[in-house]
Amino acid sequence: MKEREVQQQGCAVDGRPPRERLRRAVRASTFEDWRMRARVKSSDRATTAPIRESAMAGGWQVDDMVIHRIVEDQRGERPFDFFFPDAPRELLAPHRGWFDAQGLDPANGNLLMSYHAYVVRTPRHNVLIDSCIGKGKNLPMAPSWHKRTDNRWMEEFAATGLKVEDVDYVLCTHLHADHVGWNTILVNGAWVSTFPNARHLMVDEEYLFTGDWVRQHADDMSVIAQSRRAAWEQSILPIVDAGRVDFVEATHVLDDYFRLIPTPGHTPGHVAVGAGRDRDRAVFTGDLIYSPIQMQLPGMRMILDADQALAVDTRRAFLESYAETDTLICTMHFPAPSAGYLRRWRDGYRLDFVEPGICTGRHATASFA
Ligand SMILES: [Zn+2]
Asked: Which domains does the chain have, with CATH numbers?
């Protein structure tokens, strides 16, 4: 679909798949598909191509890919209860030890959140997955997002050895303000693409949903509405208008390495991204999971999920699919190092974090008590 057509059809809410269909997709075919793709089969173990040390600096080597985490910020800005308003205290009690250490900001006790993107370097392409908060964006919904002036994200990006010209694709898991920010930078008073040679892939349903939401909240002066309007106007529309966006299905496949995985709930068109030549060697979760506590309590309502029941179904199916596999789970908001292997634990799951380096799929860095 051409970008202008998509934009003009922006009010066609009826065109969206009904919720029940999405639910079935998560429960049935998608679930089996994920399970199949994540399993290790000895026959499909690919030989690992040599990777130059300079290309790997600071990243995870996963088969013949290198994954870099590009950090913009890590802080605890809001209390746990803001995100999980009805988390029963008795359910949380058994998790206080490991979760307080892993998931809360020691400075203030708030939910500790990292804001970072990932760059995946394959032998064919350099792909940016999500683009964080950005510089100078009008995002009053969080003081630390609002009109940021620092260059940490750009400095971390440069430390990978890549230039902005080297990015071939930008994939957005969804279009919330903290995932699209570095799509654009301000040049001579105009927002222009940060990555001059990149195609931006957006799921058409996500784009339609976001546009509808912004139009429906045109007069809403809440800080959330102001921020979402600004993300739309400053980080999304400028690249659409410049003809830089390819609108794709939530099941889109990009070359031999990348597959979008429909994971609706946080937003209707939300996708995770599977990466790997032959199967999902790594998967990028987007915001289908927010905090390590949801590994143990995936059914807990999260306030920012647009469809909270569907988000729970998606989260459970995702966790079940990738548990006990050697797929590197790359989360978007877990504190550093943010990525690891998914293991069954107690009545749920946990993420055994993995520091950057060569990934064999057999790390176990459990620090749970
Ligand atoms: Zn987010």
From this structure: 3-38+57-353 (3.60.15.10)
pLDDT of residue 33: 57
User: Look-up: residue for tokens 């930078």?
Assistant: 185
What spacing in Å lies between the alpha carbon of 261 and ligand 1's midpoint?
Answer: 17
Is the pLDDT confidence value at 368 over 90? no
How close is the Cα of 47 to the center of ligand 1, in Å? 35
Instruction: State how far the alpha carbon of 292 is from the alpha carbons of 56, 230, 288, 346, in Å.
Output: 27, 29, 12, 14
The three-state (H, E, C) secondary structure of 96-132, written as one string: HHHHHHHHECCCCCCEEEEEEEEEEECCCCEEEECCC
> Of all residues in the chain, what percent carry a pLDDT higher than 90?
77
Mean pLDDT, the chain, rounded, equals 87
Alpha carbon distance 215, 169 (integer Å): 28
Ligand 1 center from residue 298 Cα (angstroms): 17
Quote the pLDDT of residue 291: 96
